[in-house]
Amino acid sequence: MYLITNKEKGLMMERGQGHNVFLKDTDITLIHKGICENTCPNCGFNVSEEHKYCPNCGNKL
After folding, report:
1. What is the sign, positive or negative, of the torsion defined by CA atoms of 35, 10, 28, 20?
2. Domain containing 55: what range?
3. pTM passes above 0.85
């Protein structure tokens, strides 16, 4: 999991302009390495194994 450290590019992505954003290695920081089996890949919400959809954002797991 990465954190976008470039504030300007992060704001563009929040505004739905992500298709115009190109991230470089210097724009991101690794904050978690590995597989998060009990975490929604869309919003990071902790989910249990029986969930088929995230109860927080509705993303299919």
Report:
1. positive
2. 36-61
3. no
